[in-house]
From TrEMBL:
PANTHER family: IRON III DICITRATE-BINDING PERIPLASMIC PROTEIN, IRON(3+)-HYDROXAMATE-BINDING PROTEIN FHUD. SUPFAM superfamilies: Helical backbone' metal receptor. Keywords: Ion transport, Iron, Iron transport, Signal, Transport. Residues 41-306 form the Fe/B12 periplasmic-binding domain. The keyword Zinc does not apply. PROSITE patterns: FE_B12_PBP. GO terms for cellular component: outer membrane-bounded periplasmic space. GO terms for biological process: iron coordination entity transport. This is Iron complex transport system substrate-binding protein.
Amino acid sequence: MNLRACFLTLLLASLCLPGQGWASESVVFRQSERLQGQPLRIVSLEDITTEMLLSLGIVPVGVGGLESYQSQGRPLGERLEGSVSLGTSQQPNLERLVRLEPDLVIGTSSLHSGLFERLDSLAPTLLYRVAMTPSKRDAIEQGADMLRHLARLTGREAKAEQVLSNLDRSIAEGRRVARLAGVEGKPLAVLYPLPDQGLFIVSNEQTLVVSLANRLGGSNPWPLRDGATIHQRIEVHELARIPDLHLMFIGDFRGNAMFESPLWRALPVARNHDAGFLPSRYWSFGGPLSARILMQQMTALIREQWGSGTLSEN
């Protein structure tokens, strides 16, 4: 190997090191040059990074959006009782952050790209890439990539693989149940109702809940792929235009007046009992733990609402 080839090999290898400012992994948006492996005191500024840490058995010393994380019932929120609240994810309290003397601050490109220089001046900082940009890799795959990257950084690779293996089993079970229930190949959508307005929110293909619904093998009748748009609204009459439509509603709106109205009951999807409710209150972003919880809820809904096979997940 000549000198030029040796240099290029060493250069490419160096780009994979945790301490470099520009990481080779696409999951990393930006990171500090002084980033070191195996940090002990970690601050999380976003729900998805908080979940990632908790899933690896790491309790962050400080959390942006702590109150909302717990109030929404997100995974393992009870473990944050000893964490310091840093205000909202969008506007974290930097004075409190500095007092915690963290080894690492973790955020996301969607919320903290404009704060990177300021955060970097206070502590080693890592921003993960979270966006609605169209991609062949859905939110589930991107979440797995993010978890594996964080696991390598913190020495928790075995724990990450356990979490991802559990998710894979839940997805496989959901797909099996959907196939046996006759949902596979049918129009299938997950919507968030706005009952007072008679509207429904459709989510981007790169959101967690749509990525999960797509894994069930249905066909999304309202695919939203614009990277600049997370949600759009549709009117109730649009539900009548899709033959053999199957619907899952985020948030337990069961018993809401809209779903008891003559208008709703006249829709084919209501007459055919092809709509059901998911108890989860979050749906746009989340890590593998959120994904598994949502998939289990979807699987349970399919069993109860549309029937399926007899085997159940352990």
